[in-house]
Design a protein that fits this description.
homodimer, alpha+beta, 42% helix, DNA-binding
DNA sequence: ACAAACCATCGACGGATGTCGAAACACGCG
DNA sequence: CGCGTGTTTCGACATCCGTCGATGGTTTGT
């Protein structure tokens, strides 16, 4: 498919993480930074998506087939819908291998969000 | 006011942080954990709220008057609306001192969210 | 070729959410 | 007490979002 709408939350090929924004406590966010960061938080702001993401993230090998994580209390199309949202937000990537589609987490985005929430060590 | 709807995201008087959930990578979230954590992420999932939160968090003294952070491009009632949401989510607290109302961040919640996103050190 | 399993897309529906103006409330001051 | 300033609440509106059943596409096996 090669989805063209995927959001460039990170620099794809850079070795170091390229965080979108400074820590929340460093300075007031600009409108652009807020827009970018809010997309990530919103992607995790749904219980079903959070369960799916956690299921993938904690699955052995760092990846999971859809059939392994579909038991979250909603219909199969809804699961697919949420996985697409997580993918569009840059939090997951997907790959088809034969019959199954495997999702895996994008660790650099996770790290980027973690830095956002890093508590400033008493700045100033 | 003593809002009765404030969510008990953390144990209020405990010295140590009482995180709602394990790291996302540790094991699949239960429905309850997902519900709780999603509330926090959703609260930060709006650009205006993120700017307001960042403005408070980065303000000198760790607190800010509403009048200091109201310049985010929306009307003043909307600012108040978003501040209430952040407060209901447990991310901010408010206190009236004379004419002005001051908001400050709840650092333990920030730390709790940071732990959620902690990248597992290559488990297995 | 056909059937079955897995997954994605489509179209529709109801409820949640962001936004505003107007009005109400709280406080300090003259 | 009355006024001005700062902040919240109210009511209304448009839009977004999560959910479903039905359908379509892709791959494997018979």
């Amino acid at each position: 498919m090669s989805n063209p709408k995927v959001l460039p939350l990170i620099a794809p090929e850079s070795g170091a993480v390229a965080p979108c924004c400074p820590p929340l406590t460093e300075r007031p966010f600009t409108a652009e930074e807020a827009e970018t960061a809010a997309r990530m938080f919103r992607a995790l702001g749904d219980p079903v998506r959070l369960r799916l993401f956690s299921a993938v993230a904690s699955h052995e090998g760092g990846e999971a087939c859809v059939c392994d994580i579909s038991d979250v209390g909603v219909s199969q199309p809804t699961v697919s819908h949420h996985l697409k949202k997580l993918k569009d937000a840059g939090l997951l990537t997907s790959e088809r291998r034969g019959t199954w589609v495997y999702y895996r987490v994008e660790p650099s985005v996770l790290a980027s969000m973690g830095k956002l929430l890093a508590v400033a060590p008493a700045a100033a």
